[in-house]
Design goal:
The chain is α+β, with helices and mostly antiparallel strands. 24% of the residues lie in helices and 26% in strands. The protein has a two-stranded antiparallel ribbon. Bound molecules: iron/sulfur cluster.
Length: 62
Amino acid sequence: MKTVVDPDLCTGCELCVDTCPDVFEMEDDIAVVKVDQVPDGLEDDIREAVDACPAEAISVEG
Ligand code: SF4
C-alpha cells in the first residue's frame, strides 16, 4: 500500500500524524508521507487517517 497527502488540500491539523506517526510527519505546516510503502500492519491506521482527515487530503494506492 502507498499513501499520499495532497499538499494543496492539507490544512495542517496534525490528525494523521497523531494517528500514524510512523507514516506521516509535519513539514512546513503540512503533513507529508515519510515512507515509500506503508509498513505491514499499519494499513488499518492509514485507512483510519484517510477517514478522519477533515480536508480529505489523504489517499491510498494499492
Ligand atoms: S489529517 Fe489531513 S488535513 Fe490534517 S494534517 Fe493530515 S493530511 Fe493534513
